[in-house]
């Protein structure tokens, strides 16, 4: 079964062909980061305009790298929410048009479901039930996944998403957007114990997170000591990174214990973070859990994860109507 997945919810135009909901035959991502960087964040109008320019070449490239023609596809899947309204509409309209032209079914899928199922493309992939922690620029939510298509929220952030905290702290430190990678790189040679940043919602029975206090603590530190440079900058990055990784992994393990789960998955852009990956690995072993970490390219936005979610939905008999609209705040 061949599924073409299309993703245009934010600042990556992406398309991929996935076989049997398990194997990516191609996975093409065109990022707009350079366009948005000078504005310090994603500009919705610019995102839509650039998706319109990129979406067809990206789909063409995904099909040609897979060696698959449109008529060989069984289904087309597309992110229909959550995300930026205008950006989502570009991918959605292209998916509908291709489906209509070729007489194919299409499925609108939730972007977060895509992140949760990206791990299915890895060689070592879990079957449900598993627990999945989505940590991205817009979301920090722990889900219980008893079966494909069933997602129970166990906990979430009460304010900023983890990736949002990275991006805001990077801005405070004068680092480029998006902030995750640059902070991760500087933290490699920093001392994570240099600054004691706060850990919010420490209670183990509360499965929620809060990152806005941490961001404010960084701001206060910078106001008192000035924007750090050299080793002091590396130390601050490492200390901030430690606080985020500590909070995320503690609640992930607590959630698994509470839900009685044995398999846990980390996903979303922040799951590419080196310290988060290492600490999650360490704490999962201690707790006797099997941790699944998608390779980094599957953590950030891509078309293959949307194809997997679409293919699984298609297998369950789901088909979207041609009247489907984008839903910018679709909750999973
Ligand atoms: O999943 P994603 O590509 O897009 C959303 O759905 O939001 O995640 C993007 C987020 C950004 O906030 C970015 O700073 C963060 O993922 N990120 C990282 C790393 N790489 C990307 N955060 C921490 N460490 C990284 N290495
Ligand atoms: Zn995402």
SSE blueprint:
Layout lengths: L1 E6 L4 E8 L3 E9 L1 H5 L6 H23 L8 E7 L3 H18 L3 E5 H7 L12 E6 L4 E8 L2 E7 L5 H11 L7 H8 L24 H14 L4 H30 L3 E5 L6 H14 L2 E3 L3 H4 L3 H13 L17
Parallel strand pairs: 1-4, 4-5, 6-9, 9-10
Antiparallel strand pairs: 1-2, 2-3, 6-7, 7-8
Helix pairs in contact: 2-3, 4-11, 5-7, 6-8, 8-9
Explain the overall architecture:
The chain has helices at 33-37, 44-66, 85-102, 111-117, 162-172, 180-187, 212-225, 230-259, 274-287, 296-299, 303-315; strands spanning 2-7, 12-19, 23-31, 75-81, 106-110, 130-135, 140-147, 150-156, 263-267, 290-292. It has 332 residues and is an alpha/beta fold. The chain has 2 domains: 2-117 and 300-315, 2-Layer Sandwich (Nucleotidyltransferase, domain 5); 127-293, ATPase, nucleotide binding domain (Nucleotidyltransferase, domain 5, 2-Layer Sandwich), CATH 3.30.420.40. A 5-stranded mixed sheet has the order 3-2-1-4-5, with helices on both faces. Strands 8-7-6-9-10 form a 5-stranded mixed sheet, sandwiched between helices. Strand 7 and strand 8 (150-156) form a beta hairpin. Helix 2 (44-66) packs parallel to helix 3, helix 6 (180-187) packs across helix 8 and helix 8 (230-259) packs parallel to helix 9 (274-287). The longest helix has 30 residues, at 230-259. The mean pLDDT is 97. The structure holds 5'-O-[(R)-(carboxyoxy)(hydroxy)phosphoryl]adenosine (KG4) and zinc ion. The site of 5'-O-[(R)-(carboxyoxy)(hydroxy)phosphoryl]adenosine has 19 residues, from helix 5 and helix 6.
């Amino acid at each position: 079964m061949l599924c073409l997945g299309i993703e245009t919810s934010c600042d990556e135009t992406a398309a991929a062909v996935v076989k049997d909901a398990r194997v990516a035959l191609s996975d093409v991502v065109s990022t707009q980061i350079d366009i948005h960087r000078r504005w310090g964040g994603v500009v919705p109008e610019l995102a839509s305009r650039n998706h319109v320019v990129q979406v067809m070449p990206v789909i063409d490239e995904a099909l040609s790298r897979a060696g698959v023609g449109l008529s060989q596809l069984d289904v087309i899947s597309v992110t229909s929410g959550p995300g930026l309204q205008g950006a989502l509409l570009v991918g959605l309209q292209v998916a509908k048009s291709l489906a209509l032209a070729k007489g194919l079914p299409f499925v609108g899928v939730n972007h977060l479901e895509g992140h949760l199922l990206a791990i299915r493309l890895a060689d070592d992939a879990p079957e449900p039930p598993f627990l999945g922690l989505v940590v991205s620029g817009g979301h920090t939510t722990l889900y219980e996944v008893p079966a494909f298509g069933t997602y129970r929220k166990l906990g979430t952030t009460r304010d900023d998403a983890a990736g949002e905290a990275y991006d805001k702290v990077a801005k405070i430190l004068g680092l480029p957007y998006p902030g995750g990678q640059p902070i991760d790189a500087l933290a490699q040679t920093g001392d994570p114990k240099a600054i004691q940043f706060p850990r919010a919602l420490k209670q183990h029975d509360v499965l929620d997170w809060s990152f806005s206090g941490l961001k404010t603590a960084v701001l206060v530190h910078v106001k008192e000591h000035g924007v750090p440079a050299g080793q002091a900058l590396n130390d601050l990055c490492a200390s901030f990174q430690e606080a985020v990784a500590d909070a995320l992994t503690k609640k992930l393990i607590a959630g698994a214990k509470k839900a009685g789960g044995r398999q846990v998955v980390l996903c979303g852009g922040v799951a590419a973070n080196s310290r988060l990956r290492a600490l999650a690995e360490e704490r999962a072993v201690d707790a006797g859990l099997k941790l699944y970490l998608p390779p980094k390219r599957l953590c950030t936005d891509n078309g293959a994860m949307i194809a997997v979610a679409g293919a699984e939905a298609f297998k369950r008999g789901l088909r979207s109507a041609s009247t489907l609209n984008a839903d910018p705040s679709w909750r999973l």
